[in-house]
Amino acid sequence: MIARFVRELGLEKTMFEAAHPDVLEWYVKNYGPEVNLFIDHSQIVQLEALRAGIWGKKSLWGRAVTYKG
Question: pTM score, two decimals?
Fold first, then answer.
């Protein structure tokens, strides 16, 4: 169902809710570090660390990295 929303609307126009750390990691793993996520304020550090590639489980480590100039 999620892939259908992304396919129909585009990733840049879609925001997903990620209330659990495993769900948050799944979105970053499957849709990249720039995916739009609605999260609780207590998860901001974890999300930004996942996006920077310095946090995560073995299955995500090194897969989601962004380099900004």
Answer: 0.76
Helix (H, G, I), strand (E, B) or coil at 37: strand
Query: In whole angstroms, what separates CA 15 from the centre of its chain?
Result: 10
d(CA 42, CA 5): 27
- Across the range 35-43, mean pLDDT stands at 93
* CA dist., res. 39 & res. 16, Å (int): 9
66 Cβ contact partners less than 8 Å away, ≥ 6 residues apart: 33, 34, 51, 52, 53
Q: What is the pLDDT of residue 61?
A: 61
* DSSP 8-state secondary structure symbol assigned to residue 33: T
Q: Exposure of 10 by Cβ count < 10 A (0-12 exposed, 13-18 middle, 19+ buried)?
A: exposed
